[in-house]
Specification:
By secondary structure, the protein is α+β, with helices and mostly antiparallel strands. It has 8 helices and 5 strands; from the N terminus they run H-H-H-H-H-H-E-E-E-H-E-E-H. It has helices spanning 8-15, 40-54, 59-71, 76-85, 88-95, 101-109, 143-152, 188-196; strands spanning 113-115, 118-119, 132-135, 160-163, 168-171. A 5-stranded antiparallel beta sheet has the order 2-1-3-5-4, covered by helices on one side. It is globular and about 50 Å long. The model has no long low-confidence stretch (mean pLDDT 89).
Length: 197
């Protein structure tokens, strides 16, 4: 299986946002950075690279989502973000079971989570509204998972309903564009323009 081996802190500094959720990702950011003037193509490419990094995807995977998004009704860029946001590994991260998208993907691959009571070990599994994600009972005593889900309680998002007693998270509905955690830091229109050339 191909993996994304980009340096996490360097990637976060490059885009000026905490891509991977690590608390120290931006601490080495220089006080002043020289802004290079970018071409239109450069801006479009950078935006694509940013969103790929947010979801820890490779180019072929990312393009498949774009291709699916453009075949759906509605706004192509928003469709793309909704498809990415409802991947199982991403929702495991958003729910707080994992501290990063990489850790979430590893948890799914190793079979640590259930969807509607059944083991799903495919990170790209598309979670549908109403489906419930649960951390397997055998792993709930793990201090790392306890701290991440029960204590840190990150990403309070209106489209994800959490039950801390049941160690579960439910995708209650498709997210709205303005509800996404990075709503002010991503311009998906640039990605659509790039692929439309």
């Amino acid at each position: 299986m191909a993996t994304n081996k980009n340096l996490r802190f360097k990637t976060s500094r490059r885009f000026g946002m905490n891509i991977y959720g690590h608390p120290k990702a931006l601490k080495r950011q220089p006080a002043e950075t020289r802004q290079k003037k970018m071409s239109e193509y450069g801006m479009q490419l950078a935006e694509k690279q940013k969103v790929k990094a947010l979801y820890n995807l490779l180019e072929r995977q990312f393009y498949r989502y774009y291709d699916k998004a453009r075949r759906m009704s509605g706004v192509v860029g928003e469709n793309l973000l909704f498809l990415l946001e409802t991947r199982l590994d991403n929702l495991v991260y958003r729910a707080g079971f994992a501290r990063s998208i990489r850790q979430a993907r590893q948890m799914v691959t190793h079979g640590l989570v259930l969807v509607d009571g059944k083991k799903v070990d495919i990170p790209s599994y598309p979670v549908r509204p109403g489906q419930v994600i649960v951390l397997k009972e055998a792993y709930r005593a793990n201090e790392m998972f306890k701290q991440s889900f029960q204590q840190t309680k990150t990403f309070d998002l209106p489209y994800i309903e959490k039950s801390f007693d049941k160690w579960s998270a439910t995708l209650v509905r498709t997210p709205l564009r303005e509800e996404l955690p990075y709503k002010d830091e991503v311009n998906e229109t640039l990605i659509v323009e790039l692929y439309s050339k």
